[in-house]
Amino acid sequence: MSKFNLSKAKFATLCVHGSGGVDQQTGALSVPIYQSSTFAFKSAKQGAALFAGEEDGYVYTRLGNPTQAALEREMAFLEGGEAALCFASGMSAIAGVILLHCRNGDNLVSSDTVYGGTHNLYKETLPLWDIQVREVNATKLENIEKAIDDRTKLIFIETPANPTLSIIDIAGCASIAKKHNIPLVVDNTFATPYLQRPFELGADIIIHSATKYIGGHGDTIAGIVVGKKELIDNLRAQILRDLGGVISPLNAWLLLRGLKTLPVRMDRHCTNALEVAKYLSMHPKINWVKYPGLSTHPQHELAKKQMKNFGGMITFEVKGGRKAGEKLMNSVGLITLAVSLGDCDSLIEHPASMTHSTYSAEELEETGITEGLIRLSVGLEDCSDLITDLKLALKKI
Ligand code: 4LM
Questions:
Q1: Fewer CB within a 10 Å sphere, N or C end of the chain?
Q2: Which of 164, 190, 212, 246 to mutate for ligand 1's pocket (most ligand atoms within 8 Å of CB)?
Q3: Which of 115, 217, 313 has most ligand 1 atoms within 8 Å of its beta carbon, as the pocket-test mutant?
Q4: Which atom of ligand 1 is nearest to the CA of 377?
Q5: Rounded distance, CA 285 to CA 379, Å?
């Protein structure tokens, strides 16, 4: 056996070799898919002990499953957290964390530019439980502080933000959260643990729509929460057990596979996105381009400080606004007109009428999700092909 000390290994090595290693019983290098809903008890006594929590073991896949457990170990390890819990989707992870912390009459303070589904949960669903969400422009930290009162149970930020790519100061939010003794939740979907380390900046809880870069291949819907063991135990007992938004073993396995190539994919997403952003910025038919890696991005310095690299997402506006943008989206051939992001395939969409159509006209204006804003998830294709596709589509406008 090599004396190599995995705890000293770099992130890419950890992604490949993971926290578990080879299966001791079978030697399997890839974690098996335990596609089983239930697990046999050795005796009635053992079944009762498992139910009573007096013995550790698997009972029923809604409560835990070895493939899910492997993914949870991996994600906790890679984010640098104590424990993790998988969910059926990013939305079930977000809703689960909020419902664990908030009761009727409570509130949470959130950045105002978040995924449109999260905004809908805030605006339409949580108020039915009398949970209010105060959405503020979190690029100005004083707005967060002003919105906090004695019923605030969480601070929630998404950075880089979907779809504006605004960058929020995680360490700044963490110091406000600590001062008020409120947990800070970071939706780390756009950055992934490879590019951004929220726990090292003081965050308490990390959430992922693992559907995106963690899976990376556009074939899985899943969510993950990482945090202290006590939080994860409570989430499992109160939210997953009773609300049931559990990940399937197959999807957990697809994410484990995705994690192995996360750094390689992210490096390519980042270099492709920077090239495409530069190309679009120089194009005479483009009004503006927003990419955290461009010096023209208003929080470029903050992005440099808290991110290792700038990710695969770009937003831009074509001269001629929404109409011209629609023409572009209808004219691309290689890039696919679809929502979601973080896939191998490049995806293009119009947030105001698609992912963020849950925002009212006023909310779109306030948050800078303009009518003409186009979102591009830059994939893993050869960058010159992506640029050719955009060049040909722009010619049609
Ligand atoms: C989209 N996004 O933008 P599930 N957090 C972030 C997200 O972007 C999303 C979710 C949570 C998109 C979906 C159609 C930052 C989703 C929600 O879709 O429930 O896994 O994650 O295109």
A1: N
A2: 212
A3: 115
A4: 22
A5: 23
Query: pLDDT tens, 258-299?
Result: 999 999 999 999 999 999 999 999 999 999 999 999 999 999
Give SS3 for 395. Answer: helix
Say yes or no to pLDDT of 123 above 80.
yes
CA 188–ligand 1 middle distance (angstroms): 11
> Which residues does a 6 A CB cutoff place in the pocket of ligand 1?
89-91, 115, 117-118, 158, 162, 187, 189, 209, 211, 221, 223, 339-341, 355
Surface-to-core class of residue 4, CB atoms within 10 Å of its CB (0-12 exposed, 13-18 middle, 19+ buried): exposed
Per-residue DSSP letters for 172-223? HHHHHHHHHT--EEEE-TTTHHHH--GGGGT-SEEEEETTTTTT-SS----E
Q: Note the pLDDT tens digit of each residue in 353-386.
A: 999 999 999 999 999 999 999 999 999 999 999 9
Write down the catalytic residue from 112, 187, 204, 389.
Answer: 187
7 φ, ψ to 5°? -65, -20
Give the residue whose CA is nearest to atom 20 of ligand 1. Answer: 90
